[in-house]
Amino acid sequence: MPRKTIDDILEKKQKAQRIVMLTASDYASARLVDEAEVDIILVGDSLANVVLGYDKTSEVTMEEMLHHAKAVNRAVSRALLVGDMPYEAYQSDARRAVENARRYRDEAGASAVKLEWFRDCVEVSQSIIQAGVPVMGHVGLTPQTAREFKVQGKDAQSAQEIFDHALALEKAGVFSLVLECVPDLLAKKISENLSVPTIGIGSGVHCDGQVLVTHDLLGWADGFKPKFVKQYADIRGVSLTALNAFCRDVKDGNFPDDAHSYHMKTDEIRKVKGQA
């Protein structure tokens, strides 16, 4: 089955079909997510926290993101692959934004890149799109630059700013837009006024699609979890139980047992010269 295209994603909005997006950061997780038949796989900068152990997503580098994106690309056969542009790739030096977007496409096989809203977002998005790389926008809470992780757009003035950002990015040519941590009614208004799909994270049911960080969904990571995260499994708990059992078996001499060992004939080992 060929990978989904930008046109496939746009068509889902036209047909009122919900879009599913999840993150992946390595070959194994990407195979699972792709097999689950999601529409879009995002190599998200959240890997800075859940995979690399950084305190902030803004700390991850373009080289690190490309390293993970290449691994994800080797696993994906059906989903649209989107690379998250790290802070240094377009905000700290906007002049290199086009070059870095092209690297996602040419080196890592991504079909598009995602940019969080910042002062020059419209101009940078236009430049990347004109260079032939589709762009997914991102408004509302922008983790790369946020001082506080809280809901955005709760009053009319801030809601209008987010609404205007969304319209400006659509006009710039983005093919979709992530809405993070905005009230459900604002997300509904934006979704109804855009011709391109909206993908929500903590923004209610009225978006055209939904995304979560896969580590959060599966319960891989411990620590703080936002209100909008629904944990569907406890992979960390199951894994820790298995790891503790292994440690006990090794310490007690119960692993490896005969069933997990290779054997040879005793007369053959006698022919091997040694002290014992």
Protein topology:
Elements: H1 6-14, E1 19-23, H2 27-35, E2 40-43, H3 47-50, H4 62-75, E3 80-84, H5 87-90, H6 97-108, E4 112-114, H7 121-130, E5 135-140, H8 156-172, E6 176-180, H9 184-193, E7 198-201, E8 209-212, H10 214-218, H11 235-252, H12 266-270
Parallel strand pairs: 1-2, 1-8, 2-3, 3-4, 4-5, 5-6, 6-7, 7-8
Helix pairs in contact: 2-4, 4-6, 8-9
Please provide a written account of the structure.
The chain has 276 residues and is an alpha/beta fold. The protein folds into 2 domains: 6-234, Alpha-Beta Barrel (TIM Barrel); 238-270, no CATH class. It is 42% helix and 13% strand. It has 12 helices and 8 strands. It has helices at residues 6-14, 27-35, 47-50, 62-75, 87-90, 97-108, 121-130, 156-172, 184-193, 214-218, 235-252, 266-270; strands spanning 19-23, 40-43, 80-84, 112-114, 135-140, 176-180, 198-201, 209-212. It has an 8-stranded parallel barrel with strand order 1-2-3-4-5-6-7-8, surrounded by 7 helices. α2 (27-35) crosses α4 (62-75), α4 (62-75) packs parallel to α6 and α8 runs parallel beside α9 (184-193). It is elongated, with a radius of gyration of 23 Å. 41% of the residues are buried. The model has no long low-confidence stretch (mean pLDDT 96).
Short key terms for the protein model shown above:
276 residues, TIM Barrel, 2 domains, 8-stranded parallel beta barrel, 12 helices
